[in-house]
Amino acid sequence: MNKTVGRRLGLATFALAAAFVLGRAASAEGLPTLRGHDHTGITVPSMKEGLDFFVGIMGCKQAMSFGPFADDHGTFMSDTLNVNPRAVIKQITMIRCGTGSNIELFEYSSPDQKTVLPKNSDVGGYHIAFYVDDIKKAAAYLQAKGIKTLAGPLPVTEGPAAGQTILYFLSPWGMQLELITYPKGMAYEKTAKVKLWSPTAPGK
Q1: Which one, of 11, 18, 90, lies nearest residue 49 by Cα?
Q2: CA gap 157, 137 in Å, rounded
């Protein structure tokens, strides 16, 4: 190998290493201009069922509705939303639940629509948690409304999450949700450099 080739390989190696380091540094900073979590989107069996539950039972407030959206011949739906090209969004409704980020309800129809909901243990499984001040009172309310609740309320007494009390419950169509409360905070807060956002102190 002559000196010129060796020098070029050395410069190329340095450039690759620098790009790798700079790339890692850039990614460590996170998403540019990020402010926070704006909303969570949920597809409901029908908008009536979704609003009957989230507004009628949970007490969320309806802010706006719009739609429908479809593309009868092209690929807009698949290109934009990663759904079947013939999928139709019948309606979208944005709701707000107390102090916290928003929930976006979708009513879809689609040739390949599935109605089996993921478990929490499935990849892609999810739940939405609602903070309450009195979890026993909230649990009794849900039960009186015919909402299925699981075991609990369960107090967490050990580990970094100690101080929580939780209760899982299901929407009428089987979506997993949770009640949570931690009126005296959680154990991790005593030493944490980063503290979780909480509806009890939304400005922090």
Answers
A1: 90
A2: 21
Q: Give per-residue pLDDT as tens, 98-124.
A: 999 999 999 999 999 999 999 999 999
Residue 136 identity (one-letter amino acid): K
Q: Check if the beta carbon of residue 129 is closer than 8 Å to that of residue 103.
A: no
User: Which residues is 27 bridged to in the sheet?
Assistant: none
CB contact set of 113 (below 8 Å; sequence gap of 6+): 87
- Tell me 187's DSSP state: G
Burial 124-151 (b: 16+ CB within 10 A, else e): eeeebebbbeebeebbeebeeeebebee
Q: Output the pTM of the full model.
A: 0.84
On whether the CB atoms of residues 63 and 24 are closer than 8 A, the answer is no
Q: pLDDT (tens digit, 9 = 90+) per residue, 192-203?
A: 999 999 999 998
Domains located in the chain, CATH noted: 37-115 (no CATH), 118-204 (3.10.180.10)
Distance in angstroms (rounded) separating the CA atoms of residues 98 and 162: 24
